[in-house]
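User: I'm putting together a teaching handout on how multi-component assemblies are represented. Below are the sequence lines for each component of a complex, exactly as they appear in our records. Could you produce the 3D structure of the whole assembly as C-alpha coordinates, so the students can see both representations side by side? Please keep the chain order the same as the input.
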Amino acid sequence: MTEHVEGGAGRTAGGRRLGRRPGSADTRGQILAAARETFAEKGFDKATVRGIARRAEVDPALVHHYFASKEGMFVAAMELPINPDEVIPALLAGPREEVGERLARFVLTMTSHAQARQPLLALVRTAMTNERMATMIREFLTHALISRVAQALDIPPIRVELAFSQLFGAVLARYVLRLEPIASVEVEELAGHLAPTVQGYLDPAS
Amino acid sequence: MTEHVEGGAGRTAGGRRLGRRPGSADTRGQILAAARETFAEKGFDKATVRGIARRAEVDPALVHHYFASKEGMFVAAMELPINPDEVIPALLAGPREEVGERLARFVLTMTSHAQARQPLLALVRTAMTNERMATMIREFLTHALISRVAQALDIPPIRVELAFSQLFGAVLARYVLRLEPIASVEVEELAGHLAPTVQGYLDPAS
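Assistant: Of course. Below is the structure of the complete assembly, with chains in the same order as your input.
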Protein backbone atom coordinates (compact mmCIF):
# COMPACT_ATOMS: atom_id res chain seq x y z
CA MET A 1 0.00 0.00 0.00
CA THR A 2 1.28 3.46 -0.90
CA GLU A 3 1.79 5.78 2.04
CA HIS A 4 1.20 9.46 1.67
CA VAL A 5 2.86 11.35 4.49
CA GLU A 6 2.43 14.71 2.89
CA GLY A 7 0.05 16.19 0.40
CA GLY A 8 -3.04 14.13 1.27
CA ALA A 9 -3.39 11.88 -1.77
CA GLY A 10 -6.88 10.47 -2.04
CA ARG A 11 -8.17 13.91 -1.14
CA THR A 12 -10.08 15.42 -4.04
CA ALA A 13 -12.71 18.16 -4.16
CA GLY A 14 -13.53 19.39 -0.68
CA GLY A 15 -10.43 17.86 0.96
CA ARG A 16 -9.17 20.13 3.73
CA ARG A 17 -5.63 21.17 4.31
CA LEU A 18 -4.49 20.68 7.87
CA GLY A 19 -2.34 23.02 9.95
CA ARG A 20 -0.16 20.14 11.07
CA ARG A 21 1.34 17.15 9.34
CA PRO A 22 -0.31 13.77 9.84
CA GLY A 23 1.00 11.82 12.85
CA SER A 24 2.81 8.85 11.32
CA ALA A 25 3.45 7.33 7.95
CA ASP A 26 1.01 4.62 8.95
CA THR A 27 -1.92 6.86 9.74
CA ARG A 28 -3.59 6.36 6.39
CA GLY A 29 -3.33 2.59 6.69
CA GLN A 30 -4.71 2.78 10.21
CA ILE A 31 -7.72 4.77 9.02
CA LEU A 32 -8.34 2.32 6.18
CA ALA A 33 -8.23 -0.66 8.51
CA ALA A 34 -10.71 1.06 10.81
CA ALA A 35 -12.88 1.91 7.80
CA ARG A 36 -12.95 -1.71 6.63
CA GLU A 37 -14.04 -2.89 10.07
CA THR A 38 -16.63 -0.16 10.46
CA PHE A 39 -18.15 -0.65 7.00
CA ALA A 40 -18.37 -4.41 7.56
CA GLU A 41 -19.99 -3.92 10.94
CA LYS A 42 -22.41 -1.09 10.24
CA GLY A 43 -22.84 -1.12 6.48
CA PHE A 44 -22.05 1.87 4.30
CA ASP A 45 -25.01 4.06 5.24
CA LYS A 46 -24.58 3.92 9.01
CA ALA A 47 -20.81 4.21 9.07
CA THR A 48 -19.61 7.71 9.95
CA VAL A 49 -16.31 9.48 9.54
CA ARG A 50 -16.46 10.23 13.26
CA GLY A 51 -16.90 6.53 14.13
CA ILE A 52 -14.07 5.49 11.84
CA ALA A 53 -11.79 8.17 13.35
CA ARG A 54 -12.63 6.95 16.85
CA ARG A 55 -11.79 3.36 15.94
CA ALA A 56 -8.54 4.46 14.28
CA GLU A 57 -7.78 6.64 17.31
CA VAL A 58 -7.18 9.72 15.20
CA ASP A 59 -8.81 13.11 14.94
CA PRO A 60 -11.77 13.19 12.46
CA ALA A 61 -10.06 16.13 10.76
CA LEU A 62 -7.23 13.79 9.90
CA VAL A 63 -9.66 11.43 8.18
CA HIS A 64 -10.93 14.34 6.11
CA HIS A 65 -7.36 15.20 5.31
CA TYR A 66 -6.85 11.87 3.61
CA PHE A 67 -10.31 11.23 2.16
CA ALA A 68 -12.68 13.77 0.69
CA SER A 69 -15.74 11.63 1.28
CA LYS A 70 -17.02 8.46 2.91
CA GLU A 71 -17.33 7.11 -0.61
CA GLY A 72 -13.67 7.84 -1.34
CA MET A 73 -12.74 6.10 1.88
CA PHE A 74 -14.77 3.03 0.88
CA VAL A 75 -13.08 2.93 -2.53
CA ALA A 76 -9.65 3.07 -0.89
CA ALA A 77 -10.53 0.62 1.90
CA MET A 78 -11.82 -2.00 -0.56
CA GLU A 79 -8.99 -1.21 -2.99
CA LEU A 80 -11.52 -0.63 -5.77
CA PRO A 81 -10.03 0.19 -9.14
CA ILE A 82 -12.28 3.20 -9.73
CA ASN A 83 -14.04 5.90 -7.81
CA PRO A 84 -17.63 6.29 -9.03
CA ASP A 85 -17.39 9.89 -7.84
CA GLU A 86 -15.04 10.58 -10.71
CA VAL A 87 -16.02 8.01 -13.31
CA ILE A 88 -19.78 8.33 -13.45
CA PRO A 89 -20.01 12.01 -14.39
CA ALA A 90 -17.53 11.39 -17.20
CA LEU A 91 -19.50 8.40 -18.50
CA LEU A 92 -22.79 10.24 -18.40
CA ALA A 93 -21.43 13.38 -20.02
CA GLY A 94 -21.58 12.28 -23.69
CA PRO A 95 -24.63 11.85 -25.95
CA ARG A 96 -27.55 10.15 -24.21
CA GLU A 97 -28.17 7.75 -27.10
CA GLU A 98 -24.66 6.31 -26.73
CA VAL A 99 -24.56 5.94 -22.95
CA GLY A 100 -25.15 2.17 -23.21
CA GLU A 101 -22.16 1.79 -25.48
CA ARG A 102 -19.93 3.94 -23.25
CA LEU A 103 -20.90 2.01 -20.13
CA ALA A 104 -20.52 -1.42 -21.72
CA ARG A 105 -17.15 -0.56 -23.20
CA PHE A 106 -15.92 1.04 -19.97
CA VAL A 107 -16.91 -1.92 -17.77
CA LEU A 108 -15.44 -4.47 -20.17
CA THR A 109 -12.21 -2.55 -20.69
CA MET A 110 -11.71 -1.99 -16.97
CA THR A 111 -12.40 -5.62 -16.05
CA SER A 112 -10.09 -6.85 -18.82
CA HIS A 113 -7.22 -5.77 -16.53
CA ALA A 114 -6.67 -8.40 -13.84
CA GLN A 115 -5.47 -5.76 -11.40
CA ALA A 116 -8.77 -3.90 -11.62
CA ARG A 117 -10.87 -7.04 -11.84
CA GLN A 118 -9.52 -8.88 -8.81
CA PRO A 119 -10.72 -6.49 -6.07
CA LEU A 120 -14.15 -6.30 -7.71
CA LEU A 121 -14.48 -10.08 -7.85
CA ALA A 122 -13.25 -10.27 -4.26
CA LEU A 123 -16.09 -7.99 -3.27
CA VAL A 124 -18.65 -10.16 -5.07
CA ARG A 125 -17.19 -13.26 -3.42
CA THR A 126 -17.53 -11.58 -0.06
CA ALA A 127 -21.13 -10.58 -0.77
CA MET A 128 -21.94 -14.19 -1.61
CA THR A 129 -20.70 -15.57 1.67
CA ASN A 130 -21.31 -12.84 4.21
CA GLU A 131 -24.64 -11.19 4.84
CA ARG A 132 -23.16 -8.11 6.48
CA MET A 133 -20.68 -7.53 3.71
CA ALA A 134 -23.53 -7.92 1.22
CA THR A 135 -25.39 -5.12 3.01
CA MET A 136 -22.30 -2.94 2.96
CA ILE A 137 -21.81 -3.50 -0.76
CA ARG A 138 -25.49 -2.99 -1.56
CA GLU A 139 -25.56 0.31 0.27
CA PHE A 140 -22.42 1.51 -1.45
CA LEU A 141 -23.70 0.49 -4.90
CA THR A 142 -27.04 2.14 -4.28
CA HIS A 143 -25.51 5.33 -2.99
CA ALA A 144 -22.53 5.67 -5.29
CA LEU A 145 -23.90 4.19 -8.50
CA ILE A 146 -27.60 3.38 -8.87
CA SER A 147 -29.17 6.52 -7.37
CA ARG A 148 -26.70 8.78 -9.03
CA VAL A 149 -27.17 7.37 -12.53
CA ALA A 150 -30.96 7.18 -12.11
CA GLN A 151 -31.07 10.81 -11.07
CA ALA A 152 -28.73 12.03 -13.79
CA LEU A 153 -30.68 10.22 -16.51
CA ASP A 154 -34.08 10.86 -14.93
CA ILE A 155 -35.21 7.23 -15.02
CA PRO A 156 -36.49 4.88 -12.29
CA PRO A 157 -33.69 3.14 -10.33
CA ILE A 158 -34.85 -0.31 -11.43
CA ARG A 159 -33.78 0.54 -14.99
CA VAL A 160 -30.26 1.31 -13.80
CA GLU A 161 -30.27 -1.93 -11.81
CA LEU A 162 -31.32 -3.88 -14.90
CA ALA A 163 -28.44 -2.36 -16.88
CA PHE A 164 -26.10 -3.12 -13.99
CA SER A 165 -27.35 -6.71 -13.78
CA GLN A 166 -26.61 -7.28 -17.47
CA LEU A 167 -23.05 -5.99 -17.23
CA PHE A 168 -22.53 -7.78 -13.91
CA GLY A 169 -23.78 -11.10 -15.32
CA ALA A 170 -21.66 -10.72 -18.44
CA VAL A 171 -18.48 -10.03 -16.45
CA LEU A 172 -19.12 -13.10 -14.26
CA ALA A 173 -19.89 -15.29 -17.29
CA ARG A 174 -16.63 -14.07 -18.87
CA TYR A 175 -14.25 -14.18 -15.90
CA VAL A 176 -15.73 -16.57 -13.33
CA LEU A 177 -17.68 -19.17 -15.29
CA ARG A 178 -15.50 -18.51 -18.35
CA LEU A 179 -18.13 -19.72 -20.75
CA GLU A 180 -16.88 -19.97 -24.30
CA PRO A 181 -16.92 -17.98 -26.50
CA ILE A 182 -18.03 -15.17 -24.16
CA ALA A 183 -14.74 -15.52 -22.24
CA SER A 184 -12.46 -15.08 -25.22
CA VAL A 185 -14.15 -12.66 -27.62
CA GLU A 186 -12.65 -9.18 -27.89
CA VAL A 187 -13.93 -6.38 -25.68
CA GLU A 188 -15.27 -4.60 -28.75
CA GLU A 189 -17.33 -7.57 -29.89
CA LEU A 190 -18.83 -8.18 -26.48
CA ALA A 191 -19.49 -4.47 -25.98
CA GLY A 192 -21.30 -4.50 -29.31
CA HIS A 193 -23.62 -7.24 -28.06
CA LEU A 194 -24.28 -5.64 -24.66
CA ALA A 195 -24.56 -1.98 -25.61
CA PRO A 196 -28.08 -2.14 -27.13
CA THR A 197 -29.37 -3.97 -24.04
CA VAL A 198 -27.87 -1.43 -21.65
CA GLN A 199 -29.06 1.43 -23.84
CA GLY A 200 -32.58 0.00 -23.90
CA TYR A 201 -32.75 0.00 -20.11
CA LEU A 202 -31.31 3.51 -19.86
CA ASP A 203 -33.37 5.16 -22.58
CA PRO A 204 -35.69 7.93 -21.39
CA ALA A 205 -38.79 6.49 -19.71
CA SER A 206 -41.60 6.51 -22.27
CA MET B 1 -31.28 -37.37 1.19
CA THR B 2 -33.90 -39.82 -0.06
CA GLU B 3 -32.74 -43.38 -0.43
CA HIS B 4 -34.12 -45.56 -3.15
CA VAL B 5 -33.48 -49.21 -2.40
CA GLU B 6 -35.78 -50.53 -5.05
CA GLY B 7 -37.16 -49.18 -8.31
CA GLY B 8 -34.20 -47.03 -9.34
CA ALA B 9 -35.58 -43.54 -8.90
CA GLY B 10 -33.51 -41.04 -10.86
CA ARG B 11 -33.48 -43.52 -13.70
CA THR B 12 -35.29 -42.14 -16.72
CA ALA B 13 -35.09 -42.97 -20.41
CA GLY B 14 -32.38 -45.52 -21.04
CA GLY B 15 -32.07 -46.60 -17.40
CA ARG B 16 -31.31 -50.30 -17.18
CA ARG B 17 -33.02 -52.80 -14.94
CA LEU B 18 -30.62 -54.98 -13.01
CA GLY B 19 -30.87 -58.70 -12.40
CA ARG B 20 -30.10 -58.24 -8.71
CA ARG B 21 -31.13 -55.68 -6.12
CA PRO B 22 -28.68 -52.92 -5.23
CA GLY B 23 -26.28 -53.79 -2.45
CA SER B 24 -27.27 -51.52 0.42
CA ALA B 25 -29.63 -48.69 1.19
CA ASP B 26 -26.60 -46.44 1.10
CA THR B 27 -25.41 -47.34 -2.37
CA ARG B 28 -26.98 -44.31 -4.03
CA GLY B 29 -25.40 -41.97 -1.49
CA GLN B 30 -22.06 -43.70 -2.00
CA ILE B 31 -22.28 -43.19 -5.75
CA LEU B 32 -23.20 -39.53 -5.32
CA ALA B 33 -20.27 -38.89 -2.98
CA ALA B 34 -17.94 -40.51 -5.50
CA ALA B 35 -19.54 -38.45 -8.28
CA ARG B 36 -18.98 -35.19 -6.38
CA GLU B 37 -15.32 -36.01 -5.86
CA THR B 38 -14.80 -37.14 -9.43
CA PHE B 39 -16.53 -34.11 -10.98
CA ALA B 40 -14.52 -31.75 -8.77
CA GLU B 41 -11.29 -33.52 -9.69
CA LYS B 42 -11.75 -34.12 -13.41
CA GLY B 43 -14.45 -31.65 -14.42
CA PHE B 44 -17.69 -32.72 -16.04
CA ASP B 45 -16.37 -33.66 -19.47
CA LYS B 46 -13.60 -36.01 -18.35
CA ALA B 47 -15.53 -37.71 -15.58
CA THR B 48 -16.80 -41.16 -16.58
CA VAL B 49 -19.46 -43.44 -15.16
CA ARG B 50 -16.79 -46.14 -14.99
CA GLY B 51 -14.46 -43.91 -12.96
CA ILE B 52 -17.23 -42.92 -10.58
CA ALA B 53 -18.23 -46.57 -10.14
CA ARG B 54 -14.63 -47.50 -9.39
CA ARG B 55 -14.34 -44.79 -6.76
CA ALA B 56 -17.65 -45.80 -5.18
CA GLU B 57 -16.55 -49.44 -5.33
CA VAL B 58 -19.70 -50.56 -7.12
CA ASP B 59 -20.42 -52.12 -10.47
CA PRO B 60 -20.89 -49.55 -13.31
CA ALA B 61 -24.20 -51.23 -14.06
CA LEU B 62 -25.37 -50.18 -10.63
CA VAL B 63 -24.57 -46.55 -11.44
CA HIS B 64 -26.69 -46.87 -14.57
CA HIS B 65 -29.40 -48.40 -12.46
CA TYR B 66 -29.69 -45.23 -10.40
CA PHE B 67 -28.84 -42.58 -12.98
CA ALA B 68 -29.80 -42.54 -16.64
CA SER B 69 -26.98 -40.18 -17.60
CA LYS B 70 -23.85 -38.45 -16.37
CA GLU B 71 -25.88 -35.27 -16.47
CA GLY B 72 -28.56 -36.75 -14.21
CA MET B 73 -25.84 -37.85 -11.83
CA PHE B 74 -24.40 -34.32 -11.75
CA VAL B 75 -27.84 -32.84 -11.02
CA ALA B 76 -28.33 -35.27 -8.14
CA ALA B 77 -24.78 -34.91 -6.81
CA MET B 78 -25.03 -31.10 -6.71
CA GLU B 79 -28.62 -31.30 -5.47
CA LEU B 80 -29.73 -29.04 -8.30
CA PRO B 81 -33.42 -28.15 -8.30
CA ILE B 82 -33.93 -28.99 -11.96
CA ASN B 83 -32.63 -31.34 -14.58
CA PRO B 84 -31.92 -29.46 -17.82
CA ASP B 85 -32.55 -32.78 -19.58
CA GLU B 86 -36.20 -32.44 -18.72
CA VAL B 87 -36.74 -28.70 -18.43
CA ILE B 88 -35.09 -27.35 -21.58
CA PRO B 89 -37.14 -29.27 -24.15
CA ALA B 90 -40.31 -28.11 -22.39
CA LEU B 91 -39.17 -24.48 -22.36
CA LEU B 92 -38.16 -24.55 -26.01
CA ALA B 93 -41.33 -26.29 -27.14
CA GLY B 94 -43.67 -23.23 -27.30
CA PRO B 95 -43.75 -20.37 -29.85
CA ARG B 96 -40.29 -19.10 -30.74
CA GLU B 97 -41.28 -15.45 -30.32
CA GLU B 98 -42.16 -16.05 -26.68
CA VAL B 99 -39.13 -18.11 -25.66
CA GLY B 100 -37.59 -15.10 -23.88
CA GLU B 101 -40.67 -14.65 -21.77
CA ARG B 102 -40.89 -18.35 -20.91
CA LEU B 103 -37.22 -18.52 -19.91
CA ALA B 104 -37.30 -15.31 -17.84
CA ARG B 105 -40.46 -16.35 -16.02
CA PHE B 106 -39.18 -19.87 -15.43
CA VAL B 107 -35.84 -18.77 -13.99
CA LEU B 108 -37.42 -16.12 -11.77
CA THR B 109 -40.18 -18.41 -10.54
CA MET B 110 -37.78 -21.24 -9.77
CA THR B 111 -35.31 -19.01 -7.94
CA SER B 112 -38.11 -17.40 -5.93
CA HIS B 113 -38.18 -20.65 -3.94
CA ALA B 114 -35.33 -20.67 -1.41
CA GLN B 115 -35.08 -24.44 -1.62
CA ALA B 116 -34.35 -24.29 -5.33
CA ARG B 117 -32.23 -21.15 -5.10
CA GLN B 118 -29.83 -22.24 -2.38
CA PRO B 119 -28.06 -25.08 -4.22
CA LEU B 120 -27.71 -22.88 -7.30
CA LEU B 121 -26.16 -20.04 -5.30
CA ALA B 122 -23.93 -22.56 -3.55
CA LEU B 123 -22.65 -23.63 -6.94
CA VAL B 124 -21.91 -20.03 -7.95
CA ARG B 125 -20.14 -19.44 -4.63
CA THR B 126 -18.03 -22.50 -5.28
CA ALA B 127 -17.19 -21.37 -8.79
CA MET B 128 -16.01 -18.03 -7.40
CA THR B 129 -13.55 -19.55 -4.98
CA ASN B 130 -12.34 -22.72 -6.61
CA GLU B 131 -10.85 -22.93 -10.08
CA ARG B 132 -11.51 -26.65 -10.47
CA MET B 133 -15.11 -26.36 -9.44
CA ALA B 134 -15.49 -23.47 -11.89
CA THR B 135 -14.28 -25.77 -14.65
CA MET B 136 -16.72 -28.45 -13.60
CA ILE B 137 -19.62 -26.01 -13.60
CA ARG B 138 -18.62 -24.44 -16.91
CA GLU B 139 -18.45 -27.82 -18.59
CA PHE B 140 -21.81 -28.85 -17.21
CA LEU B 141 -23.45 -25.54 -18.25
CA THR B 142 -21.94 -25.77 -21.72
CA HIS B 143 -22.96 -29.37 -22.21
CA ALA B 144 -26.36 -29.36 -20.54
CA LEU B 145 -27.58 -25.87 -21.33
CA ILE B 146 -25.73 -23.65 -23.77
CA SER B 147 -25.00 -26.10 -26.59
CA ARG B 148 -28.41 -27.63 -26.36
CA VAL B 149 -30.32 -24.35 -26.55
CA ALA B 150 -28.06 -22.99 -29.28
CA GLN B 151 -28.62 -26.10 -31.36
CA ALA B 152 -32.37 -26.22 -30.82
CA LEU B 153 -32.80 -22.56 -31.76
CA ASP B 154 -30.13 -22.64 -34.47
CA ILE B 155 -28.21 -19.61 -33.17
CA PRO B 156 -24.54 -19.12 -32.21
CA PRO B 157 -23.73 -20.20 -28.62
CA ILE B 158 -22.66 -16.66 -27.65
CA ARG B 159 -26.27 -15.53 -28.00
CA VAL B 160 -27.40 -18.16 -25.52
CA GLU B 161 -24.59 -17.11 -23.19
CA LEU B 162 -25.69 -13.48 -23.42
CA ALA B 163 -29.25 -14.47 -22.50
CA PHE B 164 -27.88 -16.60 -19.67
CA SER B 165 -25.68 -13.75 -18.44
CA GLN B 166 -28.68 -11.41 -18.22
CA LEU B 167 -30.78 -13.85 -16.20
CA PHE B 168 -27.77 -14.82 -14.08
CA GLY B 169 -26.94 -11.18 -13.31
CA ALA B 170 -30.55 -10.39 -12.48
CA VAL B 171 -30.85 -13.31 -10.06
CA LEU B 172 -27.64 -12.26 -8.30
CA ALA B 173 -28.74 -8.61 -8.14
CA ARG B 174 -32.06 -9.78 -6.66
CA TYR B 175 -30.90 -12.42 -4.18
CA VAL B 176 -27.24 -11.74 -3.40
CA LEU B 177 -26.77 -7.98 -3.71
CA ARG B 178 -30.49 -7.44 -3.00
CA LEU B 179 -30.56 -4.13 -4.77
CA GLU B 180 -33.83 -2.30 -4.32
CA PRO B 181 -36.28 -2.35 -5.96
CA ILE B 182 -35.04 -5.28 -8.08
CA ALA B 183 -35.04 -7.48 -4.96
CA SER B 184 -38.66 -6.89 -4.03
CA VAL B 185 -40.63 -6.45 -7.25
CA GLU B 186 -42.94 -9.29 -8.23
CA VAL B 187 -41.69 -12.06 -10.50
CA GLU B 188 -44.12 -10.92 -13.20
CA GLU B 189 -42.82 -7.36 -13.22
CA LEU B 190 -39.18 -8.41 -13.37
CA ALA B 191 -39.92 -11.03 -16.02
CA GLY B 192 -41.60 -8.29 -18.03
CA HIS B 193 -38.39 -6.24 -17.95
CA LEU B 194 -36.06 -9.12 -18.78
CA ALA B 195 -38.10 -11.00 -21.39
CA PRO B 196 -37.45 -8.58 -24.30
CA THR B 197 -33.71 -8.68 -23.61
CA VAL B 198 -33.60 -12.47 -23.52
CA GLN B 199 -35.83 -12.66 -26.59
CA GLY B 200 -33.55 -10.25 -28.44
CA TYR B 201 -30.55 -12.48 -27.87
CA LEU B 202 -32.44 -15.65 -28.83
CA ASP B 203 -34.18 -14.34 -31.94
CA PRO B 204 -33.19 -16.07 -35.18
CA ALA B 205 -29.79 -14.87 -36.40
CA SER B 206 -30.41 -12.26 -39.09
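A couple of points students might notice: Chain A has a mean pLDDT of 88. DSSP finds ten helices and no strands in chain A.
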